[in-house]
Design goal:
alpha+beta, Helix Hairpins, five-stranded mixed β-sheet, binds adenosine-5'-diphosphate
């Protein structure tokens, strides 16, 4: 069995060829039958006019004048038109072509005017000895005389045959040519798609750097390839950040695990006092807690990002919450030789989860104090109106390099200068996830060695 190619270009061409064929066929049929019916209508009109005129000659000038007129017309017309005059009972009074009329007498489809109706009757018939049919009119020209005229349809048949041949030639020439053109056009149209799928294939073999080049293939294909390229950029940056994230996780897991290993190894050596074993156990527990906290925070970030609706939501007095946080961190600030100033508009309310909002604020304030060397200052401000609620946490600390400013919100990302500080790079990703779950966001402005300002905007 022949298998049809299952390509878009082939299908488009097939539909196009089929459409063209149907269009040509219908156009031809409409033309053909219109010509046929116009021709017939005109012939019928002529025949009716003829019978009326000849009837008038008969009535005004008599039978001989009519016969003379008919003889003249037969002689000029080369049997294109044939005539016969019958008495009402069927007896023949005149016959221009006896051999032809004989046939009709035997099998005339309509009785020649004997019905007594005044309107002449029209009908078609093919006579024996003739190839083409004739159109007949049979009508009364007096109370007892019937005139019959038969006109050949040869001209009309020739015209229709010409039409048929023209259509056939047209179909044989135009359809293959147009199909070829359609094939070339559809191949050109899908060339852009091929470029996109080739790039996709290259990428599936591992080359995320490839991009589609489809200039000159039309706006739709260019839009598709642009979208594809944007998607690739996004995937590439996601893959890269995932790679970095895994590196960071590995790095952050390695240190506590290595410490646990060292502690355990040392416990295995002999001659240890009970106190030393207890210290080793306490250190192991501490390291395990740190690991557990890291894993729990990762899960919390994922949960806050997914916004699963697991967190309970209530009316939170965020002014009170921020004041409490300020009070709590005042002691830490003093301990580190820093000034903590808080300016809080009272009575700002928000629908949200108290615990998560508390952790979000604590993360930002903890960071500000952590990354600001003494002597320095941390300012917390909160303001709200009916549409917006803004909290800023600004410090005069080490600042964040411009290329890192968006990346600090990625999971496990830690700035270079923060390696000496405690932390695992999850605080800001958790805080942003919480802000977003509350219909807001966190942004940062920062200058190296001048300080950073984090802005939380929430919708009340
Ligand atoms: P962690 O503080 O545990 O490292 P975070 O997610 O809270 O993790 O912060 C990510 C990184 O952002 C930090 O490692 C640090 O480099 C940078 N960062 C955050 N807050 C500040 C700040 N106030 N000043 C300077 N750098 C900051």
């Amino acid at each position: 069995m022949i298998r049809m190619p299952d390509t878009l270009a082939f299908r488009l061409t097939l539909w196009y060829a089929l459409g063209l064929f149907l269009f040509l066929i219908s156009a031809f049929l409409v033309l053909y039958f219109s010509v046929d019916s116009v021709f017939k209508a005109r012939m019928d009109e002529d025949l009716m006019e003829d019978i009326a005129e000849l009837g008038e000659i008969y009535r005004e000038e008599g039978m001989t004048a009519l016969e003379n007129e008919l003889d003249r017309e037969v002689a000029a017309g080369d049997e294109q038109e044939i005539f016969r005059i019958l008495a009402f009972g069927g007896a023949e009074k005149y016959n221009s072509s006896p051999s032809l009329w004989r046939e009709l007498q035997a099998s005339a489809p309509v009785p020649p005017g004997t019905s007594g109706e005044d309107t002449p009757l029209l009908f078609s018939a093919t006579l024996a000895g003739e190839d083409t049919p004739r159109r007949f009119v049979s009508g009364k020209i007096s109370a007892d005389t019937v005139l019959q005229i038969g006109e050949s349809l040869e001209e009309q048949q020739e015209l229709l045959a010409l039409l048929r041949s023209i259509f056939l030639i047209l179909a044989l020439l135009v359809i293959p040519l147009a199909t070829l053109l359609g094939w070339l056009l559809s191949r050109r149209a899908v060339a852009g798609l091929k470029a996109v799928s080739k790039t996709a294939a290259r990428i599936s073999r591992g080359g995320l750097d490839s991009r589609v080049q489809t200039r000159g293939h039309g706006a739709e294909i260019e839009a598709l390839s642009d979208t594809f390229n944007v998607m690739l950029d996004r995937i590439q940056s996601l893959v890269n950040s995932m790679r970095e994230m895994t590196d960071n996780i590995a790095h952050d897991l390695r240190s506590p695990l290595a410490r646990i290993r060292v502690i355990s190894e040392m416990s295995l050596t002999n001659n240890k006092s009970v106190e030393e074993y207890q210290t080793a156990a306490a250190q192991t527990i501490e390291e395990c807690d740190r690991l557990l906290q890291m894993i729990n925070t990762t899960l919390d970030v994922a949960e806050a990002e997914a916004d699963t609706g697991k967190f309970s939501v209530e009316d939170v007095d965020i002014s009170r919450l921020t004041e409490d946080a300020c009070e709590l961190f005042q002691a830490v600030a003093e301990e580190r030789g820093l000034d903590l100033h808080c300016r809080i508009q009272p009575g700002c309310l928000i629908r949200g989860n108290t615990n998560n909002l508390q952790r979000m604020l604590a993360n930002l304030m903890d960071n500000a104090l952590k990354y600001t060397p003494a002597p320095g200052e941390v300012r917390v401000e909160l303001g709200c109106n009916k549409d917006n609620l803004t909290i800023t946490v600004a410090d005069t600390g080490v600042g964040i390099p411009a290329p890192e400013q968006e990346r600090i919100f990625e999971r496990f990302f830690r700035g270079d200068q923060s390696r000496s500080q405690e932390g695992c790079g999850l605080g800001l990703s958790f805080s942003r996830a919480v802000a977003r779950a509350h219909g807001g966001d966190i942004t940062v402005r920062s200058q190296i060695d001048k300080g950073s300002c984090f802005t939380i905007s929430l919708s009340p």
